[in-house]
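TASK: fixed-backbone design
INPUT:
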């Protein structure tokens, strides 16, 4: 009996030793997850939901949500931070990330410029389809039928119904800020769409007022809660305040979203009436990483009121029917590119401090304002005052803040920001210039100025977030034994060429060996990997670690060697912190 026990113990020791010697298999042998299931139709319980037309109306869609501006600001500025003091809320990485350290396509996000290089035509078109594009020059008198006044928001406007097309919300710029808000809405939306977010179709159009026809008896309820007639006098006031170019008036035309609109999404928690919504919004990488995109454009007003959920029913003729799924949209980027407030102090602080920032208020109180702050050095650019304090000189992407705390932005980690930076690195100057042209500025110099500001702000983002975690991306296997990738930092010349000195090692059950890195143009690099799995043998797990010399952290590529005939297959990627 004693000898049997000893033999068993010896076997256990040998097995344990073998297990310790084996390369840990972080990722299983399977195709990485690239598409979420949250676009699959689901059914929602039908409930009685009376409306103005039918007191017995039954809806089989999620319940619409109304987001009060004052409450959202107060909750995220005062009440939520206090409640978190007494809660156990450990920091953790985002939960909607696949084995390739990327965000799968979902009801929230679709990989676009980060996955496939779009044409300039696709970039500038954004979410607009061909049939959505307006041609006011060919419109006949009375063709644009106004069937509703604009019920809320800061900018005046009205809804237009055009035969053969969608409905559009026509909005004008603020009298004190001609052109910038409408241009920011169109430019910002195009960039958000190119990155991967769902957006509305936005256009800047110049319209002859004679194309409008006002339906009689319209009323509109403004932000103050007062309902007033939207009659010819109200319409004439909107048109008179619109920007002018000859006999035409400047408008931002926003195409009406499809589906049954549910109101904004929240930046934390989930929708309890959406079976597909299972990941807390504050733990979604797409929403967390959105902080860096907002910082690039100075979209300080990135809050839940500037978003929208829409129920996409399978039965298009019955928008409140089940089954269906919820599509999540980013809306309204008109605050981007240098919005100016009536109080210059707030305009200056935006991006560097919350509107009500306890820390900054405390420091100013204790020091009596003796410490110079970044916003005190900001100046309006001569001739480009329309862009306010939208500069790059004082821009710090790491410390940029929006209007008030955003639950998802506040939880963004280095990995979340680096993910967004890798996507933003795909924008080239020509792309930015083409999208800026959508603003249709009267001042011809505005295009070049804004392009330069966006390019320089982007370079600051890339310098910060492509130099910590590895920026090596786009891994692919070429043939049976060649692993290739693109160093986005070198492709974007974030560092001098001499700083990029590549080293690679391959680790398997057989040990660790060096691998030669062949460097190509545009950030490309390739490595020929030695096979460690014999012909006909079991798949062997290997890890290839690549260092660039310019970034502090390495890239670890996890692969399975299927032998000389089967080649290598990528199972996953990790970017360890330095």
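OUTPUT:
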């Amino acid at each position: 009996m004693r000898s049997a026990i000893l033999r068993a113990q010896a076997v256990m020791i040998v097995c344990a030793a073998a297990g310790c010697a084996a390369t840990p298999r972080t990722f299983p042998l399977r195709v990485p997850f690239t598409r979420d299931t949250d676009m699959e139709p689901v059914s929602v319980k039908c409930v009685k939901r009376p409306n103005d037309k039918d007191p017995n109306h039954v809806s089989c869609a999620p319940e619409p949500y109304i987001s009060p501006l004052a409450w959202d600001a107060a909750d995220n500025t005062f009440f939520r931070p206090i409640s978190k003091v007494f809660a156990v809320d450990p920091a953790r990485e985002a939960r909607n990330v696949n084995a390739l350290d990327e965000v799968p396509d979902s009801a929230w996000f679709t990989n676009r410029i980060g996955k496939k290089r779009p044409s300039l035509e696709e970039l500038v078109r954004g979410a607009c389809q061909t049939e959505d594009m307006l041609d006011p020059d060919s419109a006949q008198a009375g063709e644009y039928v106004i069937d509703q006044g604009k019920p809320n928001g800061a900018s005046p406007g009205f809804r237009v119904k055009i035969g053969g097309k969608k409905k559009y919300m026509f909005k004008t710029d603020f009298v004190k800020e001609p052109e910038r808000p409408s241009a920011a809405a169109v430019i910002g939306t195009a960039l958000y769409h190119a990155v991967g977010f769902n957006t509305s179709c936005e256009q800047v159009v110049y319209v002859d007022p004679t194309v409008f026809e006002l339906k009689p008896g319209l009323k509109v309820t403004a932000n103050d809660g007062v309902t007033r007639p939207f009659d010819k006098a109200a319409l004439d006031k909107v048109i008179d305040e619109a920007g002018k170019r000859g006999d035409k008036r400047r408008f931002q035309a926003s195409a009406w979203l499809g589906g049954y609109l549910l109101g904004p999404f929240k930046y934390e928690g989930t929708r309890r009436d959406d079976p597909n919504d299972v990941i807390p919004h504050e733990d979604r990488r797409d929403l967390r990483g959105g902080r860096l995109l907002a910082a690039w454009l100075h979209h300080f007003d990135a809050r839940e009121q500037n978003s929208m959920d829409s129920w996409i029913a399978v039965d298009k003729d019955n928008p409140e029917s089940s089954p269906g799924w919820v599509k999540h949209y980013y809306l309204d980027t008109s605050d981007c590119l240098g919005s100016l407030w009536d109080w210059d102090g707030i305009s200056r602080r935006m991006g560097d401090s919350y509107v009500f920032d306890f820390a900054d208020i405390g420091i100013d109180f204790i020091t009596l304002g003796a410490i110079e702050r970044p916003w005190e050095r900001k100046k309006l650019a001569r001739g480009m005052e329309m862009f306010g304090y939208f500069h790059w000189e004082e821009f710090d992407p790491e410390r940029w803040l929006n209007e008030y705390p955003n639950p998802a932005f506040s939880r963004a980690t280095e990995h979340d920001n680096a993910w967004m930076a890798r996507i933003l690195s795909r924008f080239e100057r020509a792309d930015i210039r083409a999208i800026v042209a959508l603003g249709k500025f009267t001042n011809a110099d505005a295009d070049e100025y804004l392009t330069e500001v966006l390019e320089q702000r982007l370079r600051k983002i890339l310098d910060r977030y492509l130099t910590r975690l590895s920026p090596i991306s786009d891994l692919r296997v070429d043939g049976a034994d060649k692993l290739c990738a693109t160093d986005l930092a070198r492709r974007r010349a974030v560092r001098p060429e001499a700083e990029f000195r590549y080293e690679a090692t391959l680790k398997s059950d057989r040990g660790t060996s060096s691998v030669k890195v062949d460097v190509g143009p545009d950030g490309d690099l390739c490595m020929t990997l030695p096979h460690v799995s014999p012909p006909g043998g079991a798949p062997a797990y290997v890890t290839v670690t690549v260092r660039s010399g310019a970034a502090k952290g390495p890239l670890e590529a996890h692969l399975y060697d299927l032998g000389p005939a089967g080649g290598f297959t990528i199972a996953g990627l990790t970017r360890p912190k330095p």
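COMMENT: The first helix runs from residue 2 to 21.
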